Amino acid sequence: MAEGEKMRIDPAAMSKSELVDQLNQLQANAKTDLEQSEAQLLHELQVHQIELEMQNLELREAQQRLEEARDRYADLYDFAPIGYLTLEGAGRILEINLTGAAMLGDERANLIGKPFSARLARKDSQLFFLYLNRVFHSVGGSNIVTEVKIKRGDAVVDVHLESAPMKSTAGQDRTCRMVMTDISEQKRAKGTLKQTLLAQEALLNTIPAKVFFKDKDLRYTAVSQGCQEFFGRQVADILGKTNFDLIPRKQAEGLQRMELSVLLSGVPERNIEHMVTDSKGNQLFFTISLAPYFGPDGKTAGLVGVSVDVTPIREAEHLSQDLLRQNRLLTQRLFSLQESERRHLARELHDELGQWLTAIQAEAGAICSNSGAEREPEICAIAQAIGNSATEVQSVIRRILRRLRPALLDELGLTDSLQELAIQWRQHHPKIVCDMELDGNLGDLSEALNITLYRIVQEALTNIANHAQAHHVKVWLRRVPDVASDPEHLLLTVQDDGKGMYSNLPLKGLGMLGMRERVIASGGEFMSQSAPGKGVCIEIRLPLVAPMEERRKT
């Protein structure tokens, strides 16, 4: 093959990189010999051809990039999430993307050349033309915005319009570009939020409790009418403030500790009692319930609190406690008067009636001795009958005296008196086994405590004999020493195996009520447990020093 034929190449069949390599090779191999003009000319032609092919490739690549950019723009224009429109001066649609056509509820071809106002709700047509006039007369081509309602079938959709005029040359019609955004969901959300806020405001203005919302800095963001009345300020003067701005510092510190605990832990707290001073200087008691509320990110955004004024309840409780104390004092006084009357009656029976009965017995014996059983047997028999009756009456009086005032209680103390009471009770109720256990030192108790314990045991045994149908009774009295914070006290247990009763029923018998009142009046605790067929167990706890006596000492 000739040398000229070796130099012949086909640029159309080569790639850009191959052309560049070939060009470089040709330039490197170019001969500078002027005598080889034909070869030089051929070389230059080949170089020029390669350069033209390179330019052609670059043009094709640029055209391809342009087409891709155009396709991307068309896709962005037509399928953007908002509507794009071009309007002429009278408001007719010149251009509109597919999203805008879908928002107007029609095909794009049916919208071109049609007035945009035809798609608006009737009351917004005039508003739109005023808006369009503002757009074309805007200074500096700034964007002008408005909101209108468009008709889409039977529905009405809220849209946001943002427009700017386009530059036009002399003789061209005025045009503007407009962006249309569907804000129906935003409108509904705003409406729902507004209703919620109105409902919250109505609730805050009518609820009797003091309700408040605070941010993470513990500043008030919303308060109820009750809070306004408590602080003696208008809402605007409360919002943005903390408790330190509104109440005494010491009280604010206590509230802040509670609020920070809930805010940091995220755990609600309920019915925390706290004392607060109101705007008039009154010290009031409140129960406060606190709970965190959360923001859209799920993190704690602040606190909501409900505060209820329980001052009237506390005052009622104090009044009730005062009345209860007075009632106990009255009950103690009544029992004291009762014991005093019993003592007086026992003394009268023993001193007065006892003497008369002794005299009757003596007179009856004298009559029988003087008349003689043989001489006047009838008179003697009558005298003996009178004497026997007097003796029986004395026996009855002694039993009454034991119930009215046991002599051993004054002479020998509680232990012997209770044991004697058990002996007498067994004699009268031989079919019931009665066990009595007395533990600890019971010899140094006060007279009032001795009488209370004796009367309770006496009444309990009487109830068992009359109502329990029991076969076995146990009485256990013990003195319990100090244990930790539990002071020394007395425990009395009376238990039987009788027919029992329903323990949830209210006490009706005077015996049980009397025992309970005696215990309560002495500052003690009265408990009873029972069930049908399982007997009754009475447990009584009495302090060694009655509350009233303790207060007198202090």
Strand fraction equals 15-25%
Overall pLDDT score: 82
Topology, number of strands:
15
Could you give me the name of the CATH homologous superfamily of the largest domain?
A: Histidine kinase-like ATPase, C-terminal domain
Features of the shown structure:
554 residues, alpha+beta, Beta-Lactamase, 5 domains, five-stranded antiparallel sheet, 16 helices, 51% helix, rod-shaped, disordered C terminus, coiled coil, kinase, phosphorelay sensor kinase activity, Multi-sensor signal transduction histidine kinase
Task: Give a topology summary.
Elements lengths: L2 H5 L8 H14 L7 H43 L3 E6 L4 E4 L1 H7 L3 H4 L13 H12 L7 E9 L2 E11 L9 E8 L1 H23 L3 E6 L4 E4 L1 H7 L17 H17 L3 E9 L5 E12 L5 E10 L1 H61 L5 H28 L2 H5 L2 H15 L4 E7 L7 H22 L3 E9 L8 E8 L13 H12 L3 E6 L5 E8 L3 H7 L1
Parallel strand pairs: 11-12
Antiparallel strand pairs: 1-2, 1-5, 3-4, 4-5, 6-7, 6-10, 8-9, 9-10, 12-13, 13-15, 14-15
Give an overview of the whole structure.
A hairpin with a 5-residue loop joins strand 14 and strand 15 (536-543). Helix 10 (311-371) packs antiparallel against helix 11, helix 10 (311-371) packs across helix 15 and helix 13 packs parallel to helix 14. The protein folds into five domains: 3-75; 80-182, PAS domain (Beta-Lactamase, 2-Layer Sandwich); 210-309, Beta-Lactamase, CATH 3.30.450.20; 311-405; 410-554, Histidine kinase-like ATPase, C-terminal domain (Heat Shock Protein 90), CATH 3.30.565. It is α+β, with helices and mostly antiparallel strands. Helix content is 51%, strand content 21%. Mean pLDDT is 82; it is low at 1-6 and 548-554. The longest helix is centred in the middle third of the chain and has 61 residues, at 311-371. 19% of the residues are buried. The strands form three sheets. A five-stranded antiparallel β-sheet has the order 2-1-5-4-3, with helices on both faces. The chain has a five-stranded antiparallel β-sheet with strand order 7-6-10-9-8, with helices on both faces. The chain is rod-shaped, with a radius of gyration of 56 Å. It contains 16 helices and 15 strands. Pfam families: HATPase_c (PF02518), HisKA_3 (PF07730), PAS_4 (PF08448), PAS_9 (PF13426). InterPro entries: HATPase_C_sf (IPR036890), HATPase_dom (IPR003594), His_kinase_dom (IPR005467), PAS (IPR000014), PAS-assoc_C (IPR000700), PAS-like_dom_sf (IPR035965), PAS_4 (IPR013656), Sensor_HK_TwoCompSys (IPR050482).
